[in-house]
Design goal:
single chain; about 190 residues; alpha/beta; 6-stranded parallel β-sheet; about 50% helix; globular
Length: about 190
């Protein structure tokens, strides 16, 4: 199955994902299922209405919110994770998929290229036909899947909580020192 994790809303491009999945199943004769994990948000009504009329409705599984443990299990067994968001603050779900050795199909929106680097297959988030072709490619091209898996496992160690805390502490210390220089002495 192809896994999506996140709020089911317009800025996450759910309607394009559903249109692309329909094209993947019908035009590319894809056999993977689509699993959506997350709560409905703004714009879900439009996506849900599309899904209700889609001939592939029985191949789309809307799970809603799931526990972290269940999400980890879903990630570990997915054929691919998709994140074609129009805006992404950081991209934790695709990064977690990389750590599980799962290939990721992503848009180049927000922080995704910075976080995922060369460990993801990037697609055009506005063209369902292109997304469908890339879904098919990431599912069927075993050499691409293996390359993405290896790059992902190499990339993930750059994102640890210890490293994040260290970088945050340095940034805060620099901000305090800079403010101290401008407004008087401040002891970090």
């Amino acid at each position: 199955y192809i896994l999506y994790i996140g709020r089911l809303e317009k800025k996450k491009n759910i309607i394009v994902l559903l249109r692309a999945f329909e094209a993947y199943r019908l035009e590319h004769h894809g056999t993977a299922e689509l699993v959506l994990v997350g709560q409905p948000g703004y714009g879900w009504d439009e996506a849900h209405a599309f899904l209700q009329q889609s001939p592939v409705i029985n191949h789309v599984h809307v799970l809603g919110w799931e526990s972290d443990e269940h999400v980890r299990i879903l990630q570990a067994h997915a054929a691919a994770t998709v994140c074609i968001s129009r805006y992404e603050g950081f991209g934790i779900p695709p990064l977690e998929s990389l750590s599980a050795g799962v290939p990721v199909l992503a848009s180049r929106a927000g922080s995704l290229p910075e976080v995922l680097g060369d460990a993801a297959l990037y697609t055009d988030l506005d063209v369902p036909g292109t997304v469908a072709a890339d879904l098919n490619r990431i599912i069927t091209d075993t050499s691409l899947r293996e390359a993405l898996r290896e790059r992902g496992l190499t990339r993930v160690p750059s994102f640890t909580w210890d490293r994040t805390a260290e970088i945050t502490a340095r940034a805060l210390q620099a901000a305090v020192l800079q403010k101290g220089d401008k407004y008087g002495t401040v002891t970090p």
